[in-house]
Amino acid sequence: MFLVLFSVYMLIPILATYLFSIAVRWDRSILPEGYTFDWYVQTFNHPYFLITVKNSFLLATYTVAANLVLIVPATYLAYARLPAAKIPIDVLTILPFGIPRVILALALVTVYTVPVINRSPLLLVCACTVFSMPYMYRPVANSLDAIDLGTLNDAAMIQGANARQILFYIVGPNIINGIVSGCLLVFSAIFAEYTLARLITGARFKTLPMLLVEFTRRDGRVASSISVIAFTVALLLSLAIIALAQANQRRGEQAVSGAGKNT
Questions:
Q1: Same domain, yes or no, for 101 and 199?
Q2: The domain containing residue 99 runs over which residues?
Q3: How far is CA 152 from the centre of its chain?
Q4: Do 189 and 252 belong to one domain?
Q5: What interhelical angle do 2-20 and 220-262 show, nearest 10?
Q6: What is the model's pTM?
Q7: Do both 104 and 28 map to the same domain?
Q8: Does any domain span residue 54?
Q9: pLDDT at residue 168, rounded to an integer
Q10: How many distinct structural domains can be found in the chain?
Q11: pLDDT tens per residue, range 200-223
């Protein structure tokens, strides 16, 4: 019963947004007064639509990559080699939740005044990486807590593996679910990020949420179509990443079972 109520509570706003995006008019009756795809046509014909989609996709992708390079190895080293660093890292990854994005953006723009960096997409990626650190760190940390990291690490070191080999070939496959969860959280958060992009780059690097806000002030139906497109793109990408991770996990399990049978 509770699952049904929760599902209804979550699905009704999404379905309403989808329905409003194809409604001719929906303010005088329970159901829309006719249906049309004109709002989607206007969206796709807008000269900045594909540009903003590409910019948002690149911003989210580069931020995910930066988190993978910075957060995953640092979390592994803290949990495997430097247990005393766990508490400081926990504190550092909580700070982005306590710092408003407006203050973060204005501080970065004020400090990094070099023309090549100031108000550039590079600075925006760095800001988004700082803001999204908790979304990557917490799933990876939870996955490391769920495995016998000490035994895996000691056994690999006895066999002569270095830290990079242990992370990529031994620990990494065992925490792949946490890494995938972190990637999805970071991607979805940054793909919909507005404040940092608006204050750091502005019109120089226009993202999809910025275009959405513009249309929200003009026509809510076109804004609904943009929201539907953004949600659908994020959903399809998330499903594809999850399917890829599950396929890799199944291949790893089959390889392990096959090796066990051979021995």
A1: yes
A2: 48-262
A3: 29
A4: yes
A5: 130
A6: 0.83
A7: no
A8: yes
A9: 87
A10: 2
A11: 998 889 999 998 888 887 777 788
